[in-house]
Structures are given as structure tokens and as C-alpha cells.
Amino acid sequence: MDQGLRNSSSRETTAHSSEERSKVEAGTSEQGLYGPDSLLVGASPHPPPPSTRFSRLADSFRARSPQLYHVAERAVKYIRGPRPKVDLPDPVPLLGRTYNFKGRRFVIALEPAIIRFTRPLTVAWLFVLLVAAYIISFSFLVRAQWYTIPASSFVGCTSVFWTGDAGCGLDGSLCAPFSNSSFDFRCPAQCNSVVLQNPRVVGDESVDFVPLLVGGGDSQKTYRADSFICASAVQAGFFSDSTGGCASVNLVGNFTNYLPTTAFGLSSIGFPSVFPMSFRFSPSDVLTHCTDLRTPALAFNILITCFLFLVLRPKAIVMWWCLVCIGFWHIALFSQPQATPPPLDVAFGAFLPALFVCYGFWRVAVRFTLPLFANAPFEAMIWYLAPYWTGVLTNLTMDQIPIDRLTAADIKQQPGGVLALIIIVLILFVLVANQIRVIRKTGWLLYYLGWYIVGGLVALVLALLPGLQFRLHHYIISMVLFPGVGFPTRLSAIYQGFLLGMFLNDVAAFGFDSILQTAADLVDGGTTGSPLPTFLTNSTTYNASVALANQTISWYGMPTAIATQGWNGFALLVDDVEVYLGTALNYSLAALEAGLPHFFRLAYAMDGTPGDFTMPVTLWPNGTWVDALPGAS
Checking DSSP bridges between strand 104-109 and strand 516-517, what pairing results, if any? Predict the structure, then answer.
């Protein structure tokens, strides 16, 4: 590293000369910093500094426990590191040096060869020309991806015709029409990996962390209307998950007994009762240009970044901005757009603040590492690009890790979440411990520890604020860790590449979400913790000898303590459809079809808006009543 560059940074220190430092250390080791014999003949005529409370405590501690004092002194000196502070040596190219092995010398000169052959291509005008060509080519890819078919034809991976619980209103009126309607649509790629983040009850079954698919096992491949449209089309065989595609969906209304099936890596569940809205697929004769281009765009951008490192080799700061821009717009326009088609206004709203933060990354870390690999372009490409693209594609590379949100409820809910968290913490501990070792060798450890301790105390205060939940988003993790990886080592280069990719992935795909969020912000289709009513009808009181048409189910009235919270009614789901909203305490089953199982869930309502529903009560065709399990659905 250029010594002038390092010393021009904020990491500056004033230190005694070697001779002065030796005198001070010698005097301190013999008499202590303020020992009585420190002012000797020929010594400095200045009196010793006045005694402080800290120095008196230190002297007292040394007098009472000299061995423990020396142990603590050595530990403090070790943590403090060398004085004056030092710079680590610049990394020597692994593929541009001479190796000795069993008396033989081996010369590997790949890096010098790359530099020599590509030197004519590193001129500024060629770089500007190729940047312009890249922007034009990328624009054509974006146009082919999003702007050759009507915007209204795009659907997202979680698009449905029927929303969960009471989302479609009383008798599903908000989701009409139920039948005799068709729609030509285009789905993006990689919808198989988009799953439910909270449990969803279908009949008496709860599904979670899979795409919601209900039905599809009959000869006509009929799906319940709350199934994910795109995953259903993939399972039905109309296009592949890797390329996305187009199809036509046809609403067919009422259907009974949805059958489960497994196909193309997806499994659906069954529903043995009736539901008012269903759909089937047919090929689309209207839409063209249906292939999702995210994979070709990824290959194109990876090749461009490799070309930048190996051939064009611009200045480090220019290379940094190229990585920032390429990664951000690949995420925003291809790998994880915030909507389909991507909202460019939202993307630019996140892009400008991201540039500001990335300049901060350059100032505190990257300028101390990336320029050092100017003579090792192949190494720089490996150390930076492999972790960089791993971070950019976090939605794919980390897809199998069973942790989506760093909240206790989410980690406990996902199978294997606790084990995954333990493994991640152990890996981070090893990496952080090694980085602490590197920082200590430079003498900067106390400086960094001070700032991180202050930041930890601020985070603790934020986490304790009432009514809010502390959220450590991926972009915040990157911002926190980046200052600690600004050192001239290969591992620092790897960390910088991954942290940049992870930062861009979070910001481009989700924006700068707040570090503090309310419980309502985190519901995401899950339960809210509202009070739950109780069925009065149960397995003991239900009379199976009475015909279904003459049956009535009932529930307990609302306690005064709950009514004072604002709850003023009840909502009832029958077979996952809201059929009642009001203040009555019973419901007639005369309209239900005999010979089918039926499922009931009940919730308190506040001004017509239901709260959490109970777990389902099941009434089987033979008259068996199965009481609801405890908890909300």
C-alpha cells in the first residue's frame, strides 16, 4: 500500500521517536510511569505529570497484586498492539512470484503476462466507449425483459385470485367474478423458491415455507383460487421455473375435492370440501417474448465484470463504481425487482442514497485494499467477484438457509432455523476473531473497539425502545462490518466483495427499511396477537344425530375486557370463506352441503375488520366434531 495514502487517512497517530519511546518504556518498567526516581540527573527538568485517580488505582493494584497486575499489563499491551502504529505489508501476487520447492525454483508469471498483453487496452477512450456500449446493450436486455408485452400481463410469484382468510370479504364479494373469465399472463423465473413466510391454514391443514398450491391433481388440473398462479402453472407443466413463461388462466368457479399432486419439483395439498373459485390453465395465443432473461443478463454482467478486472483494468475508484452500478441495476431490473415490471422511480429513489453509502465504504475500507491488487488483476477478480456475485444473488445463494428474518419468532418457526443460526454465529465468530487479529497487528484495535462499543450501546438503546422491534437488515450488517475490513489482506478483499453484494441486494430489492419497525410492519400475513373467541359448540355438545340442515353452531359472547379494547363483533370462516360478520352468537349450517367435511374458524371483529382467527374446527361427514387446537391461524 502507498504509505502516503495510508497516512493521509483518518488513521493517523503521533508517536515518539524510537529513542524517546525506548527511554519512556525503560523508565516505566523500572519505576512505573510516575515512580519517585523518574527524575534523575541528566533527565528532563520537567516535573512528572500530576498524579491522577487512575494512576493511583493502578499503583495500588500493582502493590497489592503484582503478578496479576503484570498479567493485565501484558494483556492490555497485546490488545493495544504495536506503538507506533504500523501498516501491514502489501500482498505479493500469488501468480507473479518465484517459488522454491525441494531446491527447485518455479516462476509463475501469469499476472505480469496479463498486464503486458492487456496494457494497450487500458486507455481511457476505450473504457468510455465500452461503457457506452454496455449501457446500450443492457438497455436492450431490459427492454426485451419488460417492455415487449403489456405491463398488465405481468404477475408476481405470489399473485393469487383469492387472498387469505377474510381478505376477499363477505362471501368473497371483493374477489368476484368467480367464473367465466380468462387472463393471459406472464410469470418471472425462479418462482418455485418464493414461499409462504407465515403459516397458512387450508381446511384443517397448516402449510408454511412452501409455495401455496391447493389442488391440481385432477385430470383437468384444477387449482383453488388462493394458489400461487405462477407456481401452479409451473407444476401444471406450462413453462419451466428457470425461464418463466406465459399461459392463459381460466376461472371456473365452484369446485369440490381438490386433489394433491407432485410435479416438476412442486407438491400441492388437497382440500376435500367445496370452494367458490377455481382456475385452470391453457396455452396463451396472445403473448410472445415470454422467456425471462435474468439468467442471460446475469451471464452478461458476470462477463463484463471479469472483463473489467482482467482487460480494461481502470483505476480502483472507477472499478468500485462499476461494481456498485452493475450490481444494483442487475438486482433492481432482473434478479429481484420490487414489482413486475420494475418501478424505475422506486429504484432511482434507492440508488442515489446507495451511492452515498458506497462512497462511505470506499473511504473507510475499499481504498486501502482494492488499489493494492493493481499488479494482480486475476487475483483481484477471484477475491472480489466470487463473493460479490454471491452477495448480489443472496436470494439464490442463501435460499436454502432456513432464516428469512432475524426475529426470534421467525427463527423458531422455521425447521432448522436455530441450528442454522448457531452455525452462522460460529462461522462469524471465527471470521471476526481472525479479523481482530489482523487489526491488532496494525495497532488500530482499540480505536475500532471503541467505535464498535459505542455503536453497540446505541443499538441496545434502540432495541429497548417500547412498542418497536429492532431489525438488523442485511444492508445494516454491511454498513456495520465494512469499516473493520479495510486492511491490505486477501480476506479483507473477500469480505468487501461479499458485503458490497449483500448491501446492494437488500437496498435494490427492498429499499432502506427502517432499523426500528412496529409489530404490524412485521406481520406479513401472519397473526397479530389479537384475542381469540371460543366455540360454545364442541365435540361433547354437538349432536351428530341431527341432520346437517338443522344444525346450528354457536360461540361464547364477548367478555367485557375484550369489548373495552374496541372489539364489537365476530367473523366466521366456513371452508376458508368468510360467511358471517356481525354480533350474533350462532350460525345455521343449513346452507352447507352434506356428505363433505367442513371447517370453521372464528375471530373477533373491530368495526368490520376481523382479527386473528382460531385454529379450525372440523366437522366430518359422519358427524364427528374435532375441536380446534389452541392458538391462532
Answer: unpaired
